[in-house]
Amino acid sequence: MRCIAEPAPAPTAPADDGAPPPVVLRGFRPPDVGPISAIVAEALHEHYDPTLYASLSGEWPSGFLVAADPVDAPVGFLLGVNQVVGEARVLMFAVERGTRGSGVGSRLMDEFLERCRLRMFRRVTLEVRVSNVSAIRFYARYRYSVIDLLRGYYSDGENGYHMAREL
User: Fold this and answer.
1) Integer Cα distance of 52 and 165 in angstroms
2) Which CATH class is domain 24-166?
3) Quick check: 160 and 127 in contact, CB under 8 A?
4) Residue 152 to residue 37: CA distance in whole angstroms
5) Sign of torsion, CA 121 108 59 130?
6) 134, 138, 136, 166: which is closest to 149 by C-alpha?
7) Other CB atoms within 10 A of residue 129 CB
8) 16: pLDDT confidence band, cut at 50, 70 and 90?
9) What average pLDDT is seen over the chain?
10) What is the DSSP string of the chain?
11) Residue 101 has what pLDDT?
12) What are 108-135's pLDDT values in tens digits?
């Protein structure tokens, strides 16, 4: 029991509910190359020439989405290209390890598919490592289906699946 003459306890900080900080979706910027390269190396196990990102961003700027944290640091991205008439391709898509499972990937995919619809694309394709079960499940929730097995597709010799969905 507390005596009425005692000072009230100090307010406590709100409990950390474990929710990730909010992210903003924006376009690619040249300073993003370093952080995106790091995400690619960790998540996709690939290493690309850094000039590739800027080069590809110029072909379809609105197809290169970056999820940035409150200090504008990239925590995920989706790089889409348009190489076939009426079709978009997810060339690269990854979210940094500490941000996975927080909905960032879904936000990126939802926005990308909306941009594809606005461009009147009929289909979207992508490739994924056969061992990346969580990514395959994610894509299946977005109605992507495996349409082909790509033998030795990745730089380390791993097979990939070619997946597609209609819009």
Assistant:
1) 26
2) alpha beta
3) yes
4) 23
5) negative
6) 136
7) 19
8) very low
9) 90
10) ---TTSPPPPPPPPP---PPPP-EEEE--GGGHHHHHHHIIIII-----THHHHHHHHHSGGGEEEEE-TTS-EEEEEEEEEEETTEEEEEEEEE-GGGTTSSHHHHHHHHHHHHHHHTT--EEEEEEETT-HHHHHHHHHTT-EEEEEETT-STTS--EEEEEEE-
11) 92
12) 999 999 999 999 999 999 999 999 999 9
In contact, 62 and 116? CB cutoff 8 Å = no
Take residue 44 and report the two structure tokens written for it. Answer: 């996709």
Which tokens in the block code for residue 134?
Answer: 């969580």
| Token duo for residue 39 | 């995400």
Q: What tokens were used for 53? A: 């990102």
Decide: residue 63, CB within 10 A, 0-12 exposed, 13-18 middle, 19+ buried: buried
User: Which residue bears the tokens 């590739």?
Assistant: 52
| CB count in 10 Å sphere of residue 145 | 12
